[in-house]
Amino acid sequence: MSTVQSTVVSEGGVGAAIRQGLNLFKLRIGVAIAFTALAGIAVTPGRALGAAEIAALGFAVLIASAAAGAFNQYYEVDLDRRMARTRGRPFVTGALAPNAGWLWLIALMLAGSVASAALALNSLAALFVFLGAFFYAIVYTVWLKRRTWFNIVIGGLAGSFAVLAGAAAVTPDLGVVAIVLAVVLFLWTPSHFWCLAMAYREDYAAAGVPMLPVLIGNARTARVILANTVALVAVSALPAFFGMGWIYLAGAIAGGTLFIARNVEMVRVPSRATAMRCFHASLLQLALLLTASIVDRALLA
Fold first, then answer.
1. Which of 56, 67, 218, 223 is spaced 20 to 30 Å from 150 by Cα?
2. At what angle do helices 176-199 and 272-300 cross, to 10 degrees?
3. pTM for this structure?
4. Could you report the per-residue pLDDT of 155-165, keeping only the tens digit for each?
5. How far separated are the first and last CA of the chain, in Å rounded?
6. In this structure, are residues 287 and 265 in contact, taking their beta carbons and an 8 Å threshold?
7. Residue whose C-alpha is closest to residue 254's, from 239, 277, 235, 233
8. Which phi and psi (to 5°) does residue 46 adopt?
9. Is 129 strand, coil or helix?
C-alpha cells in the first residue's frame, strides 16, 4: 500500500472511496471556482481562447482548488473532530490516513496545475492559479483561521484570484470588469461564509475558532452580513457601466435582490434556519451573476 493510499472503513467499496475522495478534495467547491475562472475569461475583451486553452485553465483551477481543499482537511483534523458538521470527513473517521504521503500528492497537484496554466496560457494566469490555492491553504487555513475573525475576509481572495486567472488567460492587462468581479468575489465570501458560521456557531465555539458569530453573537453578525451584502450587490452592478449588457444586469439585480431579502429576514430572526436560507441564497446569487456574465458576453458582445 502506498503512503497516499488508505483503507475505506465502510462497506461501500469503490463507491465509498469515490465519495471519500470527493469529500476530501472538496470538488463541488472546485467546480464552482473553475466556473468563476470561466466568467473571468468571458468578461475580458481580447483574443478568443481556444477550447483547449479554456479546458486547460478550468482544469488547472479545479486541481489547484482540490489540492488546497485536501490540505485544509489534512491540517485541520483536530478542529474537524470537535465540530459536528465535519466529524464525517475522511481523515477524522479514519477512512483515509493523514500521513505525509498526502502532502506530496497535494504539492504535486498544485505544481502540476500551475505548470499546466503556464504552459497552456501564460505566467500571470499561472500565478493567479497558485495564489488562489495559497490563500486558501496557507493564508486562511494556517495563518488566520485560528487567530482572528478576519480569517474569511482575507481568505475570500482565493475566489478573486480565480476570476483574475481567467482574465489573465485572455490578456495580461486584465480589464475593469474582471477586476470588479474579483472585488465582488472578495465581498461575497464573508457574507456567504458568515451565514454558515451563524448556523454552526456552537460548532466553531467548541473548536475554538474565532468566527464572527462566536465573538459577537448571531444578531450582531446578521447586521454585519447585511451591510456587507448591500456593498456586494452595489459593486456587482458596476460592470453595467463598463460594457456589460442587460442580461448581466438582470442577473445581478435578481440574485442581489434575493440575497438582500434573505439577509433582511435573517436580521429580523437571526436563527439557524434563516442563516441557512441566507447561505443558500448566496449560492444562487453567485450562480446567477456568473451565468449572466457568461451568457451576456456570448449573446451581446
1. 67
2. 160
3. 0.92
4. 889 889 999 99
5. 53
6. no
7. 233
8. 150, -160
9. helix
DSSP state of 153: H
Hey, what's the cell of 123?
505566467
DSSP string, 242-275: TT--HHHHHHHHHHHHHHHHHHHHHHHS-SHHHH
Grid cell of 171 as nine digits: 490578456
Residues 167 and 174: beta-carbon distance below 8 Å: yes
Q: Please state the separation of Cα 189 from the chain's center in Å.
A: 7
- The pLDDT value given to residue 27: 86
Q: Would you list the domain boundaries of the chain?
A: 15-300
* Residues 215-263: tens digit of each pLDDT: 999 999 999 999 999 999 999 999 999 999 999 999 999 999 999 999 9
Residue 1 DSSP label: -
Residues of the chain with pLDDT under 70: 1-17
Residue 190 is placed in which grid cell?
464573508
Specify the length of the chain in residues: 301
The dihedral over CA atoms of 219, 225, 226, 227, expressed in degrees to the nearest 10, equals 120
Three cell numbers at 125? 494566469
User: For residue 169, which of 40, 275, 65 has the smallest C-alpha distance?
Assistant: 40
Return the amino acid letter for 298: A
